[in-house]
Amino acid sequence: MSRWNEEWVSGAMPPVADLHLHTTASDGLLSPADLIVYVAGTGLLVAAVTDHDSTEGLDDAFAAAASFPDLTLIPGVELSTSVGDSEVHLIGLFIDNRDENLQERLEHYRSRRERSIRESVEKLNELGIGITYERVKELAGGTVGRPHIADALIEAGHVSDRDEAFEKYLGDDGPARTKKTRTTTAESIDLIHSVGGVAVIAHPRTVKRLEEVLPKMVEEGIDGIEVFAEKYGTEDRARYAGLAREHGLVPTGGSDYHAKGSEDEILPGEAGMCGPSMSAVEELRERAEAHRSRAST
Ligand code: AMP
Ligand code: FE
Ligand code: FE
Ligand code: ZN
């Protein structure tokens, strides 16, 4: 890959794009409009709203972005998928969120989430913690997820923040963890391509046996991988940029901002985020256009 990538990976360039952001449509704590006002204020030139299993925040985000001509907004979504027994979060970018089949799939994914969140709440109840699913759902507003159980635990005084809730109860080995069935990477990549989007591996450090499953995902048509992600240092960036280069993937990424308000939360536009570069954004756009023209024939 060309020299621009080296410069971005080394952190020599100020960030211009953030392609992984959450809103109240899922587990972010800023409304879509407030997020856009905030991101525009950082001076970033490109942003993507990528809520979990939902595009419900996009209309408000685009309406807000209309006041900031220097900011380009990309429609996105984040899907929880699996390849073998590895969980992979996929980011879809440049998706046509008006597509009916996409919306039907997202609704299905959200109802699947509701079942596993209900089970988690039951497990907590068995531990003597008296929160209710109804309150969790109310706190969520949009797509429900474990962070909203965390919010209910905070409200009831059991923990002081989301991180503590994950440490004590909700993390992978925690007592309230339930396994939700997930769609395969193959099916999810196809879904994203069918609505003219590109599919990107989110926060690859969380993917078990990445080197083993990556070639399969490349065969399935994965377009990019996050080289820039929350708290990824120079070594992480170099590692994932190397994999991107090896497999011909676009090196992309973003802060995965949720507006949690914790001290160590990485903020959009922060120097430590570094990338992705404008050339990577353009390459994603070109790939998306290719998928779109293929999907329409
Ligand atoms: P779920 O969507 O229910 O699987 O919950 C996963 C979400 O929880 C992720 O998208 C993050 O937003 C959040 N999350 C995961 N791990 C942690 C953690 N250790 N602390 C706080 N939030 C977390
Ligand atoms: Fe999240
Ligand atoms: Fe994720
Ligand atoms: Zn995310």
Structure description:
Helix 6 (146-155) crosses helix 7. The protein has eleven helices and eight strands. The longest helix has 27 residues, at 100-126. It is α/β, with parallel strands linked by helices. Strands 1, 2, 3, 4, 5, 6, 7 and 8 form an eight-stranded mixed beta sheet that branches. The chain folds into two domains: 15-106 and 180-296, TIM Barrel; 107-170, DNA polymerase, domain 1. It has helices at 3-10, 32-41, 58-65, 100-126, 133-140, 146-155, 162-170, 185-194, 210-219, 234-247, 278-295, and strands at residues 17-21, 46-49, 72-83, 86-93, 183-184, 198-201, 224-228, 250-253. 44% of the residues lie in helices and 15% in strands. The chain binds adenosine monophosphate, fe (iii) ion (2 copies) and zinc ion. One fe (iii) ion binds at residues 22, 27, 52, 258.
